[in-house]
């Protein structure tokens, strides 16, 4: 990928993947299941200033919300592979419109767009691509959780759709440093990997 030394903010979108209360809050579903990623707890404080810097320069900020849609009886429809790994998930977790589904408070005022997603990628079965193209976006910057899951899938789907891709190395996290670093090394083959501060400094 070739990027100019300065990134045009007006054609850039930051996509914040899954920084939600049910993943990160002490009262959330993952805390109840003792499955919170400690490095992920540090992300909102880094990402919020970056999102606001992009907005100040005329850029676009989107966020995905992992969502467990209820069936006719109100029970969450959970993919078998996810339920096997996260058996603690129960009625009300990641439910549409719930506190748990909502993005963490530090990011609440940052968004131009929220999309509900049911799989890893923020592009899968959502309106994200349509909206970004209508907004004149050419560069997609991805951050959030987890590096080897939602972040990697979203970045790869952006690449397949011919967006310029940037991944914020200290703006995403995984459940281990090894997974995080391996995923960043892999993603460098389809885009540019930068720190939050370096990316903000590069905005035209």
What does this structure look like?
Strand 4 (about 140-145), helix 6 (about 145-160) and strand 5 (about 165-175) form a beta-alpha-beta unit. The mean pLDDT is about 95. This protein has helices spanning about 20-25, 30, 45-55, 80-85, 130-135, 145-160, 175-185, 195-200, and strands at about 10-15, 60-65, 115, 140-145, 165-175, 190-195. The chain has a six-stranded parallel beta sheet with strand order 3-2-1-4-5-6, with helices on both faces. The chain has about 200 residues and is of the alpha/beta class.
Q: What's this model, at a glance?
A:
This protein is α/β, with parallel strands linked by helices and 204 residues long. The protein is built from 8 helices and 6 strands, in the order E-H-H-H-E-H-E-H-E-H-E-H-E-H. It starts with 11 loop residues before the first strand and ends with a helix.
What layout of secondary structure does this protein have?
Layout: E1 12-17, H1 21-24, H2 29-32, H3 43-56, E2 60-66, H4 80-85, E3 113-117, H5 128-134, E4 139-145, H6 147-160, E5 164-173, H7 177-187, E6 192-194, H8 196-202
Parallel strand pairs: 1-2, 1-4, 2-3, 4-5, 5-6
